[in-house]
Write a structure and sequence with these properties.
The protein is α+β, with helices and mostly antiparallel strands and about 190 residues long. Helix content is about 20%, strand content about 45%. The strands form three sheets. It has a four-stranded mixed sheet with strand order 7-4-9-8, sandwiched between helices. Strands 1-2-3 form a three-stranded antiparallel sheet, with no helix packed on it. The chain has a three-stranded antiparallel sheet with strand order 6-5-10.
Length: about 190
């Protein structure tokens, strides 16, 4: 590894100015003027998220899981993915995950473990996602958020992995967490 770019190296950018270009209840879009490592000045846009993202992989004793499908406005496409939602930073992430699982699938997990933490788009966003595996499941009725029109599928975990490898599931949090879990389960 080039020691100049080690994990411990200092930030090579110098922020000269910063201004909020746009904001809403979920994010701020910020434009910084920075001095680059070359000495030149340039702009750098970034999204500052006001909430934490959580994802959940519900898994039953027969290794079935639940995925949700919904139209994603930002990409103008339908997307199959693990249950994902957001919550305030002041709320423990596990509580947000439990709420999201119930809202989107009707499931209640009695056993939870954190699977991974990841930054979803580090080139321009500070979004952090925490993904949990929920087991020992109880089935109930979903209570969708008013902004959601969701379809739910219960499938063998192996079929969901096939959906990832075939490109049918492309949402980043889902792909990363499902592939990590398949490796952990040695499937």
């Amino acid at each position: 590894m080039n020691p100049e770019f080690s994990q411990d190296s200092d930030n090579p950018f110098t922020r000269i100015s910063s201004k909020i270009i746009y904001q809403n209840p979920w994010m701020d879009v910020v434009e910084d003027v920075v001095k680059l490592p070359s000495g030149k000045e340039n702009i750098y846009g970034k999204i500052i998220n006001k909430s934490l993202s959580v994802g959940i992989i519900p898994l039953d004793y027969e290794l079935n899981t639940w995925i949700v499908g919904q139209f994603r406005y930002a990409i103008q496409k339908y997307s199959w993915e693990i249950p994902i939602g957001g919550g305030l930073f002041s709320v423990p992430p596990i509580e947000t995950a439990k709420r999201e699982l119930k809202e989107e699938t009707g499931l209640k997990g009695n056993n939870w473990r954190e699977l991974l933490r990841l930054n979803t788009s580090i080139a321009f966003s500070d979004e952090l996602a925490i993904v949990y595996v929920a087991t020992d499941l109880e089935i109930g009725n979903p209570c969708f958020d008013e902004t959601e029109k969701i379809r739910i599928k219960k499938l063998p975990f192996s079929e969901v992995i096939d959906m990832v490898t075939s490109g049918e599931i492309v949402e980043a949090i889902s792909v990363a967490s499902l592939l990590l879990l398949v490796r952990q389960l040695n499937l």
